[in-house]
Fold this protein.
Amino acid sequence: MFKSARWMAPALLAGLSALSAARAEGLGVGDAAPKLEVKEFVKGEPVKALEPGRLYVVEFWATWCGPCRETIPHLTELQKKHPEVTFIGVSVLEQDQDEVKPFVEEMGDKMNYRVAVDAVPEKGEADEAPMVKNWMEAADQDGIPTAFIINKELKVAWIGHPAEMDEPLEKIVNGSWDLKEAIAQAEKAKLERAKMVRLQTKLQAAMQSQDPKKVVAAIDEIVKELPDAAPNLAPMKFNAYVQDGDEAQALALGKELMGGRLGEDADGLNFLAWSIVDPDLKKKPGPKLVAFALEAAQKGDKMEDGKNAGVADTLAKAYFDSGDAAKAVETQKRALELAKGTELEDDDELKDRLKQYEEAASSKKD
């Protein structure tokens, strides 16, 4: 069973794509804005083309995107504050474009700016539409919501998350925005992004090798170049230490992680414990690590008020590995009860472990 997958996908790497390393055409701050090519406007007066002498915010969103929905009221506030700026929310990557207009109508005054939908080619895919390809992909933007501020010379003055747009928009409107500095900062960010993609590739190769030593080495290289990445990569490094049988390093890092933000999250604690008691582990951990796993699992179980089947399953295995088969049976029965009605209900591994614990407990009685 693979548990707490999100702790194996550090925030540093999430959202990065190998595609970002090779774009056919680049679009960055200071470049001329691409054409506005939309299928239709579902709200507000249509804009046929971007016109010199006007300011624009072109924001990319989708009905299925939670963060996009959260930023819609903020965009409405900014449009109200800056009536001289034309805001256009472009719906992209929709599974069904027919859902866009009803969504916008339901939002009402909360979404009070122009809204258009991307011009998906007939019999084509959503990611082949011109606004996605010529704006988002060209600018190496892999996620939404994303906003572009276009200045009066029809050049891209800023690219980023709409929630971070207030200050640059204010400066662009009042004429105090330093475009040369913005270009330099954007280029610096681009280089950092390229570095992250390169390091990501090395880490992926190390993980695919299934050699924990290579994983640790790759993580150390990343942290050397990007120190801020250390907290996000630490759980993966801990798992590699455990797999490699390096108990001293694993225990030291595990205690550090338990004392930090991961230790305040039941899923994170479950990850720590399961990394040690995972039955598929090739190198059996020693008693100190098992004791640490039991401590982490108990803390996670307490956080969940004993009502999380996955955490209970981990705790039962920690009890079993600690030599307490009777407690393992009791806890595994709870895990199976909690699993009813969930995706774990049909997991035969939970049932097999209960049989294993029961047999062990029975043999001790004999």
